C-alpha cells in the first residue's frame, strides 16, 4: 500500500493543489495537521483535505482557531487565525475541533501525529536531526509521521523510520517548493518530494485579505 503524506497546509490552496496534482498514484492520503493558519484559503483547504485525506490529526493552529489571541506575540500567526475564525463555517470549525491528537494507519504500523508523540508535548518541535531521540516512542510501530517544524526529513531510527513530509503551504527549510512524501508501507521506503507552485498568486491573495506582508515574503524565501 502506498500512502501520500502531507502536513502543514496552512490555508495555502495553490500549494495544496500543486501537491495533489504532482503526487503519484497512492492508495490513501494522510495529513499530519495544521490545515489552516497564515494563508488566505482556510475554508477551501479544509474542504479539500476533508475530501482527499483518509485521516487528519490536529495541529496547533487547528486547535487554537477559536482563540487567535494566544498568538499575540506572532502577528502573522494571529492574523491567519483571525482570518480563519472569521471565514470558516460552523461545520468546518466543528470538524477542526473534532480532530484527534494521534491516529494510526497501515494496519496500525504507523503513528500519525502533528508534533512530538509524547502526551503533553504536542507543541514541541522535533527537527530531523532529533528524530533518533524518538526511538523510545516507537513502541510497536514501524514508523512515526509528524509535521509542525515545516522542515522536511526522514531518518531511520531503532526499530523503524521517522518522517516529516515537509510543509505544503509554508516550507521553512530554505526551499520554497511545497513539500510532501510518499510511503510504501509494504517496503517501508519513503520518498521525499517537492513541487513548485504559484507563490505570486498567494502573495496577491494575502494582500487582498489584509494579512501581514511578511506572510507572503517568507513564502518566496522558504523560511
pLDDT average, as an integer? 96
> Do you know the CATH architecture?
4-Layer Sandwich
Main sheet properties:
5 strands, mixed
What low-confidence regions span 5 or more consecutive residues with pLDDT below 50?
Answer: none
Q: Under CATH, the topology is which?
A: Purple Acid Phosphatase, chain A, domain 2
What's the number of structural domains? 1
CATH uppermost class: Alpha Beta
Multimer state: single chain
Helical content (DSSP H or I, runs of 4+): 25-40%
Indicate the structural class. alpha/beta
Strand order of the largest sheet: 3-2-1-9-10
Alpha carbon gap, first and last residue: 33 Å
Number of alpha- plus pi-helical segments: 7
Query: What is the strand tally?
Result: 10
State the shape: globular
Rounded radius of gyration (Å): 16 Å
The CATH superfamily name is: Metallo-dependent phosphatases
Into which percentage range does the β-strand content fall? 15-25%
In short:
29% of the residues lie in helices and 21% in strands.
Note down, in words, how this protein is organized.
With 223 residues, the protein is an alpha/beta fold. It has a single domain (2-221), classed as Purple Acid Phosphatase, chain A, domain 2, CATH 3.60.21.10. Helix content is 29%, strand content 21%. It contains seven helices and ten strands. It has helices spanning 13-22, 42-52, 60-63, 75-87, 90-97, 199-208, 213-221; strands spanning 2-6, 28-31, 55-56, 102-105, 110-113, 143-145, 153-157, 160-164, 178-184, 189-195. The chain has a five-stranded mixed β-sheet. The protein has a five-stranded mixed β-sheet with strand order 4-5-6-8-7, with no helix packed on it. A hairpin with a 4-residue loop joins strand 4 and strand 5 (110-113). Helix 6 runs antiparallel to helix 7 (213-221). The model has no long low-confidence stretch (mean pLDDT 96).
